[in-house]
Amino acid sequence: MGRGKVELKRIENPTSRQVTFSKRRNGLLKKAFELSILCDAEVGLLIFSPSGRAYEFASHDMGRTIARYRNEVGLSESNNQGFRTMEDLRTEIDYMKRTIDTLEQRHKHFAGEDLSMLGLKELKQLERQLRIGIERIRSKERSILSEHINLLKRRVRF
Question: Can you tell me whether residue 115 is helix, strand or coil?
Answer without folding.
Answer: coil
